[in-house]
């Protein structure tokens, strides 16, 4: 059974009706092909209309869709000979982040990303994509290896944020994230970061200091979730908050790929199939592959000293201060 979000209900009703008709006609001498085609065309038109006017909150829900392709899916679909590396050589391995080396279009690359997991058991094992300090230290270890061997780095971001548990704090969560930010600015190799789903807070930022930041069409990237923002602004528990507050908060936060492109934060929006990436993993992977090919080709031709200078200036240019005249 496919999982539909609330705003997709009209499409869900049509598609369920189509499946019922197909089931009724199966094994019977009844030709309802034309009726099914009409309904399929209607469903396609309706889906296109709904997805042409999504709100930031609806995009947030899409970015979290349980059937969206994850890091492990993209590795299987667009890369070859993936060898996963484990552990940070200080504490343990963190399965919320997977990383290692692979071949992308014949080129050896390092690939690192958050992994949320699919089944309930795997999601618990992966901690729902919320990494501990050892996850970020593992990621940095792989990045440093990539720098040593002169290989480009690709990071895939999909997390609600870094894990806020007591153990994570005791083992230096904030220090691990800060160290990643510091070191990534200095890595002498191309870095391309892609927000494939939900890019939340410092947990996302710790893998996204790079030469290019790409975002999937229905992904989000923010300092705080709309729910967290709403709880602070309206001083209410989650039980007291609803869609109205979440819509207002997500609109104000400017978290969508389209908003961030206008603000100059991300460098490219990667188109998703109609209905979102979860509807067609293969097609989504093709879109990502095409974008990565372009950016890797450009970055690998850039001299390293120029690359590092541009990376620094890219982040220095984000945001601006404006002096307010005194009255």
How does this model look, in words?
With 327 residues, this protein is an alpha/beta fold. The protein has two domains: 6-53; 60-316, Alpha-Beta Complex (2-enoyl-CoA Hydratase, Chain A, domain 1). The chain contains 14 helices and eight strands. The chain has helices spanning 9-25, 33-51, 56-63, 71-78, 120-125, 133-148, 166-170, 173-186, 201-205, 226-234, 243-253, 257-262, 281-300, 304-316, and strands at residues 80-84, 97-104, 107-114, 153-159, 191-200, 212-216, 220-222, 268-270. Strands 1, 2, 3, 4, 5, 6, 7 and 8 form an eight-stranded mixed β-sheet that branches. Helix 9 links the parallel strand 5 (191-200) and strand 6 (212-216). Helix 10 (226-234) crosses helix 11 (243-253). The radius of gyration is 22 Å and the shape is globular. The mean pLDDT is 91.
Comma- or semicolon-separated keywords:
327 residues, alpha/beta, 2-enoyl-CoA Hydratase, Chain A, domain 1, eight-stranded mixed sheet, globular
């Amino acid at each position: 059974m496919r999982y539909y979000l609330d705003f997709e209900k009209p499409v869900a009703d049509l598609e369920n009706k189509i499946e019922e008709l197909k089931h009724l006609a199966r094994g019977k001498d009844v030709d309802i092909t034309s009726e099914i085609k009409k309904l399929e065309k209607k469903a396609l038109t309706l889906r296109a209309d709904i997805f042409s006017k999504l709100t930031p909150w609806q995009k947030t829900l899409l970015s979290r869709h349980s059937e969206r392709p994850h890091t492990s899916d993209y590795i299987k679909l667009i890369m070859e000979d993936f060898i996963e590396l484990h552990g940070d050589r200080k504490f343990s391995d963190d399965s919320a982040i997977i990383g290692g080396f692979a071949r992308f279009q014949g080129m050896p690359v390092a690939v690192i990303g958050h992994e949320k997991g699919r089944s309930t058991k795997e999601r618990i094992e992966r901690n729902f994509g919320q990494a501990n300090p050892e996850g970020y230290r593992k990621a940095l270890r792989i990045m440093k290896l990539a720098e040593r061997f002169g290989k480009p780095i690709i990071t895939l971001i999909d997390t609600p944020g870094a894990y806020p548990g007591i153990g994570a704090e005791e083992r230096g969560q904030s220090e691990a994230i800060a160290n990643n930010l510091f070191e990534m600015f200095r890595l002498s190799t191309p870095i391309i970061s892609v927000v494939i789903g939900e890019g939340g807070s410092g947990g996302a930022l710790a893998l996204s200091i790079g030469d290019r930041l790409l975002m999937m069409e229905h992904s989000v990237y923010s300092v705080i979730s709309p729910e967290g923002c709403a709880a602070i602004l309206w001083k209410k528990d989650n039980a007291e908050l609803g869609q109205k507050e979440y819509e207002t908060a997500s609109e104000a936060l400017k978290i969508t790929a389209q908003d961030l492109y206008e603000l100059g934060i991300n460098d490219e929006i990667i188109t998703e199939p109609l209905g979102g990436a979860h509807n067609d993993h293969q097609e989504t992977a093709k879109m990502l592959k095409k974008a990565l090919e372009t950016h890797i080709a450009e970055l690998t031709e850039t001299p390293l000293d120029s690359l590092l200078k541009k990376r620094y200036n890219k982040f220095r240019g984000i945001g601006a201060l404006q002096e307010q005249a005194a009255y």
